[in-house]
Design goal:
Layout (H helix, E strand, L loop, with lengths): L1 E4 L4 H11 L2 E2 L2 E5 L5 E5 L5 E5 L5 H13 L4 E6 L18 H10 L4 E5 L14 E4 L2 H11 L5 E4 L5 H11 L2 E4 L1 E4 L5 E4 L9 E9 L3 H12 L4 E9 L5 H7 L4 E5 L7 E3 L2 H9 L1
Parallel strand pairs: 1-2, 1-5, 5-6, 6-7, 7-8, 9-10, 9-13, 13-14, 14-15, 15-16
Antiparallel strand pairs: 3-4, 11-12
Helix pairs in contact: 1-8, 4-5, 6-7
The structure holds ribose-5-phosphate (R5P).
Ribose-5-phosphate (R5P) binds next to β13 and α6.
């Protein structure tokens, strides 16, 4: 078995290979003069783990090309971040189910699929191959332990993320709560804490995706105004659109940490162990 990764998932790919005790196959990406992607892959074994996050159109094309170049091997596909998963239904007449379009294209010809904290597991059947979603509560709880906080409260920015917050909290013996989130526009949200007295507490917000940062920035502002001692943000997938990091820092967050499903300077914990464990089953 070998692991091979797209450009945006090199670090995570090598960590997964390390955990599995296998080597990496080379994948050299370049572009044709007209801008189209090209790829030269190295030697494979009979089994290949292809790792690629769908972060943007380029990473999607690279992943499709890599899968095609590995078609003679038995492929396990790892999609650490599945972009387009939030459009999991046609919200208005005439819209596509983007998650179906992307998963369907990626899953063709692969033996199995592993995703990480996919926005909703209902998209998994769209791959058309056996698909399993892994979650990172253990890695996140380990990261929070290392922050050395006293009696932190683990906070979900909306009711939908409460199960996730509770799972993280239970690993550390912490309390979990959630905010009420009302989305006003694509970039603006209003947050309310109905059941939380944040005064003097360290609050660690956990969410699956940090995109514009609007959700967590609004929550941080509200929590600081409510007297929280320190506010921290942990996301599984750090997309950080445009000035998201500045927005979050200006909102007074003490720490912004994400996993390596999308590699960036804020990647502070890894999805590799959870993925390797799913692949070993
Ligand atoms: C929403 O359903 C997700 O769980 C995240 O809360 C959302 O995608 C975060 O987006 P943003 O950072 O743009 O507020």
């Amino acid at each position: 078995m070998k692991v091979v990764a797209t450009q945006r998932s090199q670090l995570l790919g090598s960590r997964i290979a390390g955990m599995l005790g296998v080597g990496m196959a080379e994948a050299r990406f370049s572009r044709f003069p007209d801008g189209e992607h090209s790829l030269q892959r190295g030697t494979l074994d009979g089994e290949t783990v292809v790792v690629g996050s769908v972060v943007d159109a380029d990473s999607l094309v690279q992943l499709l090309l890599l899968l095609d170049a590995c078609r003679e091997s038995d492929v396990s596909l790892v999609v650490p971040y599945l972009g387009y998963a939030r459009q999991d239904r046609a919200f208005r007449e005439g819209e596509p189910v983007s998650a179906r379009a992307i998963a369907g294209a990626l899953g063709r010809g692969v033996s199995r699929v592993v995703t990480v904290h996919v926005h909703k597991e209902t998209v998994l059947p769209h791959f058309g191959a056996p698909a399993r979603n892994v979650t990172l509560e253990a890695a996140i709880a380990g990261h929070i332990e290392n922050l050395g906080l006293t009696r932190p409260v683990i906070l979900a920015p909306d009711h939908g993320a409460l199960t996730f917050a509770r799972a993280v909290a239970s690993l550390g013996g912490w309390e979990a709560e959630h905010l009420e989130k009302t989305r006003i526009s694509g970039t603006e949200v209003r947050m309310e804490a109905r059941n939380l007295d944040a005064r003097g507490r360290d609050v660690v917000m956990v969410d699956d995706i940090i995109s514009t940062g609007g959700t967590l920035a609004a929550a941080a502002g509200m929590l600081r105004a409510a007297g929280a001692r320190g506010v921290h943000a942990i996301g599984v997938h750090g997309i950080f659109v445009g000035g998201a990091l500045d927005l979050l820092r200006n909102a007074g967050l003490r720490e912004i940490a994400c996993s390596d499903t999308i590699e960036s300077g804020s990647s502070r914990f890894s999805a590799a162990a959870a993925i390797a464990s799913a692949l070993s089953r």
